Amino acid sequence: MISSHEVCRARALLPGILRRPESAARLPPERWDLVIRQARQAGVLARLCFQLDDLGLLTEVPERPRRHLEAARTLAVKHARDVRWELSCLCSALADRELTITLLKGAAYLMADLPPARGRLFSDIDILVPRDRIDEVEESLVEAGWGPGVKDAYDQRYYRRWTHQIPPLQHLRRGSVLDVHHTIVPPTARTPVNAATLTVDSLPLPLDTRLRVLAPADMVLHSAVHLFSEGEFDRGLRDLLDLSDLLSQFGRRAGFWQSLDSRAEALGLTEPLYLTLRYLDRLLALPTPAPLHDAVRRWQPPALSRSALDALFDRALLPNHDSCNDYLSATARWLLYVRAHHLRMPLHLLVPHLVRKSFRRPAAQENDDRRRRRAQVEQVLRAARAPRPGATTANAAQMRE
Amino acid sequence: MKLSAWSRAALWERLRNPGLVLQTGPFTSRVRTSIPAVADGIFLLYADYSAPQGDVFADFHIALRQPPGLRRWFRRQVSFYFDGAAPFKPLPLAQALPMLEWGLNWCISNHAHHYLIIHAATVEKGGRAILLPGPPGSGKSTLTAFLVYNGWRLLSDELALLSLEDGSVSPLARPISLKNKAIDIIGRRHPEARMSPRCEDTAKGTVALLRAPRDSVARSHEPARPAWVVFPQYKAGGDGRLRPRSKAGTLIDIGHNAFNYSVHGKRGFDLLSQTIDRCDCYDFCYEDLDQALAAFDGLAPVPALAQAASA
Amino acid sequence: MDSWRCWDGEIVVYDHCSGNTMKLDIIMSEVFRFVLRRPATEAAIVAHLAATLDLAADAHFRRIADRALLRLHQAALIQPLSSPGAPPSA
Q1: Contact B270 C16 (CB under 8 A)
Q2: Bridge partners of residue A128, in order along the sequence
Q3: Using the beta-carbon criterion (under 8 Å), do C24 and A78 form an inter-chain contact?
């Protein structure tokens, strides 16, 4: 039987290490046992490796846990390599179309050389294209070897009707997954976001002007919307750390806080930004920057709502691991999943949708299944690849977790 | 402390809670289960292995449990859990012990990226190792079992762990998975070798697990230097001759047979190139085990000094 | 520069961009090694291949050579130099 004191210590362990990596140097091996497992579950094991190495502390980690940190870093480096290659293939596939491709999330962080890219395990590549060109984009991608990542007709309809992207595409040979968005929030959201507003202010990548990334304030807001409005928390802590990195990086620029405040108001995304600031403080002890204090007071929901949200997010944002979960954690994640869908679907459609999902799999499981399928695709391709006349190829780069 | 020092009852208690910690080569696994067949299997197959006590760092936390729901009682199943999550679909309960082995292999091949991991058997003599890559059906497990009960040391029947630092291969020395006819063949030739009960109707047919030789387990911290890469193929009419094969082709074929070659990128390419530089590479077609043993013994003859001493 | 190794005239190459590893056939190996020494025109490559392999440089042979060049280019192992009519380089 684990005491509630032990549970509290265990839940605080990983956030504490991520806040102050230097504290890891004093950990005994049995605590490392828990840190490695929590960090792996949260998707931050490689990030932790980089952090410790930057501080010159990696060599002080005992050998056994250090091997896991280094193994995770090796995998993250491979992921980054794969994403660069994948983007190169994507640009080739869309070269004839002459359109603006805006990178989102992980791909954007990597190509813009931003801190959240370091130690990241990438799953899908997310891009934003104009809505009126999405059909031709899909057509070019299919010609270049991408196929439907979801085959179920219901899921296909669900994506096209209720979300801000077409159904995920999976490359038939490489196994990589591409999410093509036409905006950053579902079209049925209470405050829909006009993607043209985002692309007008987007910035070209210095080394490859075919690709663009969102302006800093938009990048933060998109990350916040993704974390707090899409109902998936298997990488919740990692996503929160991304936001912490972005705010820390961009906050040094003159005028950033003002632009973030006014942009959140203009796009109707004050709630996700408020939640970001609140949970950065609650989980990672990162206080809200002074220039946003007034804004936070404006955006703050009533006390009762705050308590309810805390009860949910305090649990959902921790790693989904036995050492961090309590008897309400699964319920909290489920309620937030329902909330996310409620934000995009009317109630009379939400209920049958949830019933259907509950007899199949929740979104988090689907991500896991998607990752497993990718791994299986990679394995099958590896086993079936026969020498071609002229050249034989081993282990074509594919993204894998 | 070796597992053989434990009583069956103490082992059972420990497996239920807080889990038994087992050292197998470079990896420590904390194993939990309430399935009697798994406990019996561990008691039989892992008797010579070290079982550290107390709070230790475990590389893998695994559990074998019956999944919740109807399948606890009706057409009973077993699930493998890695740190609380189930990476595979459940199997029939009768396959719980092989599932432990497959699960442990999965843990290593998915997480131990401080090695280049090849789907190959590895045996050693005189500090030099033979890597035996091969897909299922090539007969490598049967061959490995026979070799290790006839003078060769077992490093692994399934996973060759190549060190990225120095190119050596690290032992696992875990039980060998025998399939179908191989179970009888090895059982007849080596009645002294302990085996688990058979599991029928697995995806690989009938499976039984052969306990690793005591000496191999005792030396499971000693790496070896790869000296030969041999692609075995068991088939009627096989002449038992080692035929040199293309090194360039061998690199590609090993890449195909590796679990994490693409993870390591250039480093993996350099390590494999170096390994192949240092190894003689062969195809090997054989139709009986004694023929194979003779061929491999010919690769690593007993040194003259040792021969004179034994004369 | 990509990494490559040669054993008994057979070349395997690691491509840094894609992470792919390839074994080149004899024609691709010859082209690669020739261009590695110095950039060459397509005509010079075909002539060298024909001489080395002791084959007539007829239309069929040229098609094979073209295919080898294309596959090496697709694998990012050779590329045309920037000026028009310039020879490929490794």
Answers
A1: no
A2: A102, A181
A3: no
Across the interface, do B246 and C7 touch by the CB < 8 Å criterion?
A: yes
Q: Which CATH class is domain C3-89?
A: mainly alpha
Domain that holds residue B197: 115-300
Domain count within chain B: 2
User: Does C75 contact A at CB distance below 8 Å?
Assistant: yes
CA distances, B222 to each of B22, B78, B107, B275, C65 (Å): 18, 35, 22, 18, 51
Give pLDDT tens digits along chain B (311 positions).
899 999 999 999 999 989 999 999 999 999 999 999 999 999 999 999 999 988 899 999 999 999 887 767 778 999 999 999 999 999 999 999 999 999 999 999 999 999 999 999 999 999 999 999 988 778 899 999 999 999 999 999 999 999 999 999 999 999 999 999 999 999 999 999 999 999 988 888 899 999 999 999 999 999 999 999 999 999 889 999 999 999 999 999 999 999 999 999 999 999 999 999 999 999 999 999 999 999 999 998 765 444 444 44
For A115-147, give the secondary structure using H, E and C.
Answer: HHHCCCCCCEEEEECCHHHHHHHHHHHHHCCEE
ipTM: 0.93
A396: closest CA of chain C, how far (Å)? 5
Nearest Cβ partner for B266 among C3, C7, C12? C3
> Is residue B305 a part of any domain in this protein?
no
- pTM, entire model: 0.88
Q: Which of B58, B249, B253 sits opposite A33 (nearest CB)?
A: B58
